[in-house]
Amino acid sequence: MLFRTYARAAEAAVADLPGGPRGYQVLAAAAAGKVNSQLELARILGIDRTVMTYLLDDLEQRGLIERQPDPADRRARRVTATEKGTEVLGALDERLRAAEAYLMAPLDEEAVAAFRAQVQILARHANAADPPGPACAVAEQAPQFAATVQRTARGRYKLSRSSQ
Amino acid sequence: MLFRTYARAAEAAVADLPGGPRGYQVLAAAAAGKVNSQLELARILGIDRTVMTYLLDDLEQRGLIERQPDPADRRARRVTATEKGTEVLGALDERLRAAEAYLMAPLDEEAVAAFRAQVQILARHANAADPPGPACAVAEQAPQFAATVQRTARGRYKLSRSSQ
DNA sequence: TATTGTTATACTCTATAACTATA
DNA sequence: TATAGTTATAGAGTATAACAATA
User: Is residue A44 over pLDDT 50?
Assistant: First the structure.
């Protein structure tokens, strides 16, 4: 139930972005500036490379990201966030933070910290025993990045999948 | 991450059941013996009634559930678990409990209790502020019932959706 | 007329296959 | 020969529409 509510709130926060929560993940990665190829990004996020093409098409059309040729490998395209994309990302981050704060409202500051610590312990253990893929490495730096989910057309929620 | 791992474990636990985690939900409801119509069950679980038809077809074919005419309303079909279905459900419940225990292994008994309490506080608050539907009422009695998720053919996870 | 259940159909999302260009 | 990216196609899953039976 808790996860479902979080998923819904996160989806609502980024609803106007092409691709929804998945679009947010791509935009965040582009803004971080470490995307040297579409394929690499697709693998990190657990997205098929063909889906990545469509997703980038939409984000590029809205002027949020840009595809630039990699001078070192002319097959590959670097993905960067435009100025507008960076601005949009900032606004979305704020919304996501607000959504999280709202969900955590019933707990005081100390309890929230304890809760986070417990989740982190459990997640690390789960990750070690059953590695879900590279996306989780990103989670260490930007929790929202890996925690976002997607919503299907019919109102169900999906978690971005792990590797393989 | 934590949820994703839980979802994967739960899916693996009921992988041999038609419909996966969703089939488990239906079987559990049938065994509880309060299903007076397919439509009612579909609404509780947030499944489309047409999908329910296909799902029940599969479960019935395996001899796990039975459709019986409702004497009070000849349009409706009651859904009950067969003896075999009840046995299978018991085995699945055990597997799900084991999976949960495994995930909670890093925490001692006291910490698990504290964690559960916090999740419950947060879930109740989320539910009150943004009611996700009737499936959550069931969760009070049988946490696993509402917590299971589904996996798509491509390895992504879906949460059974709320009402509407 | 409205509701339960079924079937047939359409739609959405994702993955597979084939192609071009580079390495 | 292998890889990055694109496009076209096929597949799974779900919902919509139409139907028969019953209320």
Answer: yes
